[in-house]
C-alpha cells in the first residue's frame, strides 16, 4: 500500500521510512533498543484503547497472510459476548481495554443509574463526555464507581495470563514487562503492556 508523502519525507530526511501499526512498531523498537534487544523471538501484547500485539520470529516481524497475526484482542474469550467492531462477539478487547471502560461507564450513565451520578457531575450530565482519562482520575480521587469499573477491567485482563502461558509453551523463554500508557491512561501497572522475550528457539510446528 502506498501512502502519500512517504517518499517525499524519506528524500527530505535522507532516510528510509516504513509505516506500520503501533504494536509492530513498538515491538520492533524493543527488539532494536529495549527489553527484547539481543533476542530473536518475542511477543508483545499491548493493552490500551484496544488490545493489540506483535510477534517476532527469527528477528523478523510476523504479519500472517492477512497482516493481522498479532491481533490478540480479537481472540474470543466470551462466547456469544459483547459485539466487537470486527463483527465477532466476545473479543478480548471488548472486556479489557480503554474502550470497554468507557462503554461500561457510559452505559451506567445512560441508564440513569445512581452509581453514575458523581461521574456525570464531572461532565455536566453528558454521558458522551465520559472518557478513559476522566474515569481514571475519578478513581484516583476515590470515586467508588470509577474504582469498581477499573477493578472489573483488571479482572477481565486475566486472559493476559493465559495468553502469556500459551506463548511460553510455544516459544519458551522469560518475561520482560514494559510500561506503556496510552491516551486513556488506564493504569501505570507494568502488566498493561507485556513483552514476552524468548530464547532463540523457533516455535513448535
| Rg of Cα set | 19 Å
Query: What's the total helix number?
Result: 7
* Percent of residues in beta strands: 5-15%
* Gap from first CA to last CA: 31 Å
| Structural class by secondary-structure content | alpha+beta
What oligomeric state best describes the polypeptide chains here?
single chain
Can you tell me the overall shape? globular
Number of strands: 5
Q: Helix proportion of residues, in percent?
A: 25-40%
How would you spell out the order of helices and strands? HHEEEHHHHHEE
Major sheet: arrangement of strands: 3-2-1-5-4
Low-confidence stretches: 176-192
Can you describe what's shown?
The longest helix is centred in the middle third of the chain and has 13 residues. Helix 5 packs across helix 6. It is globular, with a radius of gyration of 19 Å. Helices cover 36% and strands 12% of the residues. The chain contains seven helices and five strands; from the N terminus they run H-H-E-E-E-H-H-H-H-H-E-E. The chain starts with 5 loop residues before the first helix and ends in an 8-residue tail after the last strand.
Amino acid at each position: 500500500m502506498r501512502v502519500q508523502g512517504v517518499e517525499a519525507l524519506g528524500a527530505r530526511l535522507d532516510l528510509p521510512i516504513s509505516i506500520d501499526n503501533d504494536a509492530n512498531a513498538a515491538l520492533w523498537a524493543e527488539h532494536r533498543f529495549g527489553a527484547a534487544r539481543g533476542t530473536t523471538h518475542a511477543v508483545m501484547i499491548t493493552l490500551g484503547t484496544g488490545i493489540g500485539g506483535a510477534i517476532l520470529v527469527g528477528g523478523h516481524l510476523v504479519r500472517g497472510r492477512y497482516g493481522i497475526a498479532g491481533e490478540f484482542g480479537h481472540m474470543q474469550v466470551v462466547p456469544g459476548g459483547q459485539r466487537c467492531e470486527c463483527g465477532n462477539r466476545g473479543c478480548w478487547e471488548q472486556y479489557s481495554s480503554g474502550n470497554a471502560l468507557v462503554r461500561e461507564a457510559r452505559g451506567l450513565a445512560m441508564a440513569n443509574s445512581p452509581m453514575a451520578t458523581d461521574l456525570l457531575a464531572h461532565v455536566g450530565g453528558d454521558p458522551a463526555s465520559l472518557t478513559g482519562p476522566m474515569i481514571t482520575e475519578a478513581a484516583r480521587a476515590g470515586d467508588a464507581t470509577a474504582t469498581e469499573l477499573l477493578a472489573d477491567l483488571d479482572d477481565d485482563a486475566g486472559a493476559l495470563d493465559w495468553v502469556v502461558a500459551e506463548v511460553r509453551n510455544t516459544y519458551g523463554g522469560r518475561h520482560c514487562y514494559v510500561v506503556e500508557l496510552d491516551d486513556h491512561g488506564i493504569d501505570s501497572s507494568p502488566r498493561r503492556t507485556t513483552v514476552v522475550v524468548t530464547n532463540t528457539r523457533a516455535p513448535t510446528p
